Amino acid sequence: MVPADTTAELTIDVSAPVATIDERYLSVAVDTAQVVGGLFWSAEPVAQLIGQERQPVYDFTRPRLRALAAELAPAFLRIGGSDADRVLCDMSENPIAEDDLPEGFEFVLTADQVDGVFEFSQALGFDVMFTLSAGSRRARRGGRLDARHGTAAARVRFEQRV
Fold first, then answer.
1. What share of the chain is helix, strand, coil (3-state, %, to 5)?
2. Which of 33, 107, 113, 144 has a CA-to-CA distance to 80 between 20 and 30 Å?
3. pLDDT tens digits, residue range 122-162?
């Protein structure tokens, strides 16, 4: 054991970087549940794996949000979380109602919501990362995964916009 009163000299060579990190290292996330107006965490302490309080659809147009987020650019905007597996992506002009969702889905990600995510990110200089869900494990067709309604549909929506 080294005595407590022992001193050591440390020299740090700052003449050249040892490593660099991506300029987008400091980034942000918005939970899928918030984007679609699903269940998110409440202020009450509850031992649950998913949120229990219904949220309004996330408003990416808020001026204060944009002003604060702009200071983080360039950055990644991650859209994801546990609810991504329970979200059906419907990019049609008339998205399915939540009451009509197939088994395994609880919420709908619409084209308008995806457009809001990408408009926000493009305006602020963010790159988007979606939690990729090829479709609910319970939403299978003929024993195969049905990817028609997975998050990949949102990616296709973005590629059609640019």
1. 30, 20, 50
2. 144
3. 999 999 988 766 554 444 445 444 555 555 555 555 555 55
Distance CA 58, CA 33 (A): 9
d(CA 161, CA 159): 5
- Please give the tally of structural domains in the chain: 1
Q: Which domain holds residue 78?
A: 28-161
Which residue spans within the chain are E strands per DSSP?
28-31, 39-40, 53-54, 75-80, 87-90, 107-110, 126-130, 140-141, 144-145
Examine residue 41 and state whether it is found in any structural domain, yes or no: yes
Give the CA radius of gyration of the chain: 21
76 CB burial (10 A radius; 0-12, 13-18, 19+): middle
pTM for this model (two decimals): 0.72
Terminal alpha carbon distance of the chain: 63
Question: Among 65, 63, 72, which Cα is nearest to 125's?
Answer: 72
Q: Is residue 33 part of a domain?
A: yes
Residue 4 falls within a domain, yes or no?
no
For residue 57, name the pLDDT band (cuts at 50, 70, 90): very high
Token pair belonging to 16: 């050249």
14: in domain: no
